[in-house]
Amino acid sequence: MSSNEVSAGASERQPFRLPLHWLGVVPFAAFTILFLIMPTMKIVIGAFQTPDGTFTFENIGSLFTASILSAYWISIKISLASAILGCMIGFAVAAAVVLGGLPQWVRGPLLTFSGVASNFAGVPLAFAFLATLGPLGILTIFLKTQLGIDLRALGFNILSFWGLTVTYLFFQIPLMILIITPALDGLKREWREAASILGATNLQYWRLVAFPILLPSILGTIALLFANAFGAVATAIALTGSSLNIVPILLFAQIRGDVLGNPHLGYALAFGMIVVTGIANALYIWLRARSERWLK
To answer: Where are the transmembrane segments (predicted)?
Structure first.
C-alpha cells in the first residue's frame, strides 16, 4: 500500500470536529443577523413593494416630491453643521489634552466621559436640553433674569434648526474626541524635531506636516459624524416633534400606523437614509485607511 493511500485512509477515518474557536462570535453573528441584516433587508424589499406585495418604483419616485426633498436637504444641513462644529470643537479639546500642556490626569476622565456622552441620545438627551435651553429652561431663565439676555429675542429656539444642531453636538463632540485622539497620538515626535531642525515654525509644522497627515482622519471623522447625526431618530422626534421637517420625523409619521400613514413610503424614506449614511460610512472607511498608512 502506498503512502498516499495510507494518508487518504487516515483522513477518511478522522471524525468531524466542530471548530470551537468560532463559538465566541456566534452571539455577535446572531445579533447582527437578527437586528441589523434582517431589518435592513425588510426595509430594502419593502421600499420596492406595494401594500399587496407587488414590485413597484412608485415609493422611490415619491422621494423626489418637493416636501420630501426639502426634508432630506434640512437633515443634510443639520448633519453637516453638527459634524463640522463637532469636528472643530472636538479636535481642539483632543489636541489640548494630547499635545497641549494640560495635566495627564485630565485625559482619563475626559475619554471616559466621551465614551459615555457619545452614546447618550434619544429621549433623555432631548429632555436634558429642553430643561436647560427650552423656553422655561434653567439656563434660559437665568440668562434672562440675571443677565438680561433673552435667547428667544435673539432668535434662538431649541425647537429650530440650530437648536437641534446644538443638541446633536452633545454626542458629536465626544465622538470626535474618541476618534481623533489615537490619530494625534500617532504624530511622531521625530517629525516635529526634524521640522524644527530645518527651521520650520510651529505654524509651518502644522500647515505642512501635521495637518496633511491628519487631514484624511479629520475628513473621515466628519463623514462619520455626518452619518451619526443623519441617522439620529429618537432625539429629533423627542425634541422637535413635528415642528421641524426632517427625514426622521417624516419616517416616524409614515410608519406609526395611523390611517394617514404609508408604511411602504416609510420604507422608501428609510432606504434613502441607508443610502446616504452608507455613502458617508464608506467615505469614512476609505479615508481612515489612508490615514493609517501614515500613522503606522
So the answer is: 20-39, 59-76, 83-102, 122-143, 155-184, 204-226, 233-253, 265-287
> Could you tell me if 59 and 47 are in contact, meaning their C-beta atoms sit under 8 angstroms apart?
yes
Q: Measured between alpha carbons, how far is residue 296 from residues 81, 120, 221, 288 in Å?
A: 31, 32, 18, 12
What whole-number distance in Å separates Cα of residue 126 and Cα of residue 245? Answer: 17
CA-nearest of 263, 271, 256 to 53 is 263
264, pLDDT greater than 80: yes
Topology adopted by domain 53-295: MetI-like fold (1.10.3720)
Q: Is the separation of the CB atoms in 140 and 94 below 8 Å?
A: no
φ, ψ of residue 49 in degrees (nearest 5): -125, 155
* Separation CA 133–CA 125 (nearest Å): 12
Are residues 179 and 214 in contact, defined by beta-carbon separation less than 8 angstroms?
Answer: no
Three-state secondary structure call for residue 260: coil
DSSP letter string, 87-135: HHHHHHHHHHHHTSS--GGGHHHHHHHHHHHTT--SHHHHHHHHHHHST
pLDDT-derived band at 7, boundaries 50, 70, 90: low
Average pLDDT on 98-105 reads 83
Provide the terminal-to-terminal Cα distance of the chain, rounded to the nearest Å. 54
Q: pLDDT tens, 269-279? A: 999 999 999 89
Q: What is the four-CA torsion angle of 257, 258, 262, 264, rounded to 10 degrees? A: 10
Q: Is 266 exposed, middle or buried (0-12, 13-18, 19+ CB in 10 A)?
A: buried
SS3 166: helix
Domain segments of the chain as ranges: 53-295
